[in-house]
Specification:
Elements (H helix, E strand, L loop, with lengths): L1 H12 L15 E6 L4 H23 L5 E6 H13 L5 E3 L7 H9 L5 E3 L21 E5 L1 E2 L10 H4 L4 E2 L2 H13 L4 E5 L18 H8 L7 E5 L8 H9 L6 E3 L7 H6 L6 H14 L4 E3 L1 E4 L6 H14 L5 E4 L17 H26 L3 E9 L5 E5 L5 E5 L19 E9 L4 E5 H15 L1
Parallel strand pairs: 1-2, 2-3, 3-4, 5-8, 8-9, 10-11, 12-13, 16-18
Antiparallel strand pairs: 6-7, 14-15, 14-17, 15-16, 17-18
Helix pairs in contact: 7-8, 11-12
């Protein structure tokens, strides 16, 4: 979502004459868009600000100017503290106020300092932001929902992004059509709790995420749809049916569970049990047998015992994940869990995280090994780092590299660039640490046919 928000902020500044540059050294304005989910993100912010402060001083000494802005959830949660700690920052803007960024920049150019806008506005920011002027490329992000009403005890999202808000379906469809017209073939629908989507439809009744996905599947040019991040509590029958019935909806689902212990899930206020999660995964796999899963886990939550952690390992073994993210619990100021006094020692957190990561890595390796030799549809997105190389992704988001110099067929030009934005059947031949090398099957077939005609 921060990638999407950053693009919208850049678009909002275009009328002021701004355009994106490649490095801070060539910028007149630097915006750091922040996340507040884990403590390390805030630490990285202040480290980066220290570097930019020196750059700002150098610019001023040379008679120039560099405006520094901090955006995102750290700005929302710690705006006043941020300005006190880094008074050289010119603008602090929360995620609900991006549509007022151009006004803040104008005021800063006029000499105002220490500007802060972290209010939750009456009007949704999407009502005021202009349509995106550019897509990210073959794949694009599209925010459909923001905020969360779940109030997990470890999470700052309800306090930094606010209550759940779902954009009107017509606005989303219009933006999707615009992105498709700019070349997007794959859309990832975004929300802090995206499957809680309940936006008003064109006829006045609320649509759920499943209905929205069904309509987006009919947008000309769109071939793949994904969504993230979801909550198990909001996976309804219609969404399960969409995984069965909508071929454009990719068979890869990120569904955070956080823990396999019912007592820890209750302490987290997750609103589901471990067995409810297992049954939900069973229903999803019944609907879409080729579905692969990703998830989030927190280890060392306050009060977590060795038995609680073993329950998490047991759930991971029961489910089997194609990939997952695991983190040590990080107390976030203002959340209920941060006030608990039964924290797990850091050494124990480290040991549990290492054990969980080993298991998850083993499962990911097993999933990827099983893909070797398979022929899968790959959406090619961009040139690779090496000459004659293209990079695409499988339906399961696995990167795939092909060498276009091996192709001698009318499907590709000499560089293979005409394959970008297209989906092609590709055999996965070799597996690297996090990607595959493959062979374009259509190209091999056409090359063989041509050789046969020549020899005849």
């Amino acid at each position: 979502m921060n990638v999407y928000d950053s693009a919208r902020m850049a678009d909002s500044l275009s009328p002021l004459g701004f355009e994106e540059t490649l490095a801070p050294e060539g910028a007149d304005l630097v915006i750091i868009n922040t996340c507040h989910i884990r403590e390390r993100a805030a630490e990285k912010l202040y480290s980066e600000l220290g570097r930019l402060r020196l750059l700002k001083q150098e610019r001023q000494a040379a008679g120039g100017k560099l405006t520094l802005a901090v955006a995102g959830c750290v700005a929302q949660a710690e705006g006043a503290e941020l300005l006190a700690r880094a008074p050289f920052v010119d603008i602090v803007v929360g995620p609900q106020s991006y549509h007022r960024l151009a006004e803040l920049v104008t005021r800063s150019d006029d000499g105002a300092r220490g500007l802060m806008d972290t209010e939750f506005p009456v009007e949704p920011k999407f009502d005021s932001l202009a349509p995106q002027r550019h897509a990210e490329g073959v794949t694009a992000f599209l925010t459909v929902q923001e905020g969360c009403d779940k109030f997990c005890t470890f999470c700052v999202v309800p306090y930094t992004r606010g209550a759940e808000y779902s954009r009107p379906a017509a606005d989303i469809i219009a933006e999707a059509r615009h992105l498709a017209s700019l070349g997007a073939v794959e859309l990832t629908l975004l929300g802090q709790n995206v499957n809680a989507y309940h936006g008003v439809g064109p006829e006045g009744a609320d649509w759920g995420l499943a209905r929205l996905i069904e309509e987006l599947a009919d947008v000309p040019g769109l071939a793949r749809i994904r969504y993230t991040t979801s909550h198990p509590h909001d996976v309804d029958d219609a969404l399960i049916a969409a995984h069965r019935d909508v071929p454009e909806l990719m068979p890869f689902l990120h569904l955070p569970v956080q823990s396999g212990s019912d007592s820890i899930l209750a302490a987290m206020n997750r609103k589901h049990t471990a067995d409810e999660y297992r049954r939900l995964i069973g229903r999803l796999r019944d609907a879409r047998p080729d579905l692969a899963l990703s998830s989030d886990f927190i280890v060392g939550f306050p009060g977590e015992t060795a038995a609680d952690f073993e329950a998490t390992l047991r759930l991971v073994r029961d489910i089997g994940f194609a990939q997952a993210f695991a983190f040590k619990y990080s107390p976030r100021p203002g959340t209920p869990a941060a006030d608990r006094d039964d924290g797990v020692p850091e050494a124990e957190k480290d040991a549990r995280l290492a054990a969980l990561l080993d298991l998850l890595r083993e499962q990911q390796d097993s999933f990827n090994d099983a893909m070797l030799g398979q022929i899968v549809p790959v959406l090619f997105e961009k040139p690779g780092r090496h000459p004659n190389q293209l990079v695409g992704r499988t339906p399961y988001l696995q990167p795939v590299h092909i060498d276009t110099s091996l192709m001698r067929t009318g499907l590709l030009d000499k560089t293979g660039m005409d394959l970008i934005g297209r989906i092609a059947e590709t055999r996965l031949d070799e597996r690297n640490a996090y990607s595959f090398s493959g062979t374009l099957i259509n190209g091999v077939e056409q090359m063989t046919e041509t050789m046969m005609r020549i020899s005849a």
